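Open question from group meeting: does this chain pack into something compact, or does most of it stay loose? Before anyone orders reagents, we agreed to write out a predicted structure and look at it together. Recording both the input and the output here so the notebook holds the full record.
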Amino acid sequence: MTDPFGFLRIPREAVPARPVEERLGDWREVYAGQAMLPLVSRQADRCMDCGIPFCHTGCPLGNLVPEWNAYAAHGDWRAAYERLHATNNFPEVTGRLCPAPCEDACVLTINADPVTIKNVEQAIADEGLRLGYMTPRPPERNSGRTVAVIGSGPAGLAAAQQLTRAGHRVTVHERADRIGGLLRYGIPEFKMEKAHLDRRIEQMRAEGTVFATGADVGGATGAGADEVRSDCDAVVVAIGAGERRELPVTGRSLHGIHQAMDYLTCANRVREGDYPASPLTAEGRHVVIVGGGDTGSDCLGTALRQGAISVLQLDINPEPGAGRTDDEPWPVYPRTYRISHAHEEARGREGRDPRLFACATLSFEGDAGGRVRALHLTAVEPVARSPVAGTEQVIPAGLVLLALGFSGPERAGGLREQLGLEFDERGNFARDAGFAAGAARAPGVFVAGDAGRGQSLVVWAIAEGRATAAAVDRYLTGSTSLPAPVAAHDRPMTALGRMRYGA
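Structure tokens returned:
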């Protein structure tokens, strides 16, 4: 166990990121080269080994946080690595990308600072890799059943790895030219270097998973979804929530206004070697990011590295407070004022927070050549979000990035029609509590990740991939020993408890 008095003697100390001026000069991870040991082992010793570890509930994967904290505190990296992988296929990903709701659920948070769970997770994953613990785990037998996974984001990859290890022959179909989905083209290199993704894909290949790129199943250039279904015993649809929200205001059609994901994809393709320079660059421009979420923050860090003159991020929500509100008590994940690494970089360069809260875009203004040059905005009321009279202002904008989120799986293409999928009331693919597609025409078709849940966190995607794999295994064989950490209709914990609708 950990030091029973560690949480009293040891203050919280997070692993420091590299200096702002250093990391703005490259595309390496913000923690690249920073020594995590022995600091992480000492921080793991703060874990209380409490009787009811709410960190398990804060994380949909049910990560065994106290167990791998104890092993990390004593330097037993193999045991820590095994316990970490007992619930999570890709801890090197979540340790870098997850906002760590487990830390907000830590019992210490009631009256102190939580354990640095995210730092410990990343350190265990990286130390295990360094020591050679990440080896292929091919199945002991072949079931003779075949499964097609459509989409290679975290949900699709998790489902594929679990099903391959269960003995099924799995092929992952990805319409892009590389495997990884948003992990590949939506996440900037400074948040997660793609070498981590490449290593995991090679492990999956060695285990027997087959990958097919350029495979737009149901699209104009790919195989028909009904054909794919007829050629295998089950299908997992894990195409994500790619239907982008628009901003229908005057001037939207001006040149220089782009969807955030197009911008991030171009930047990532430069890092992959596809372009010598991004065709959508922020260099020498005043950049405005419309949207206050993580995608907007990723655009911010990218624009700063590309040499933008200035960057503003607009958030329609009011500025959160520093502490929890009464309707977001411990252990729920609260909406509080948070600073991402990109916000920290902007403050380091400009001396201020780059965000404007409680504001909305009224219109865009263009120059004689039809290119955007300014954005008209207004303050909005906190609840109704209606404009506040007399608060209009005009800000320069040479590049506008729309980071407004997503409204379910993409409507274009023939995947939905060919598989007989239906939409639920939230615009996602309908499914039952066991992830089976909610249509009589789609036996053996399952929906995993954001395609059925709506846009969410990477830990929810991996948890859904694992749970969907268990459902598919049961469908194919009549029973399963694969873990199912969530049901399809589970939701994050709220003040009323975890909202669970499934059986």
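Observations to bring back to the group:
The chain is about 30% helix and 15% strand.
Residues 49 and 138 are 34 Å apart (CA to CA).
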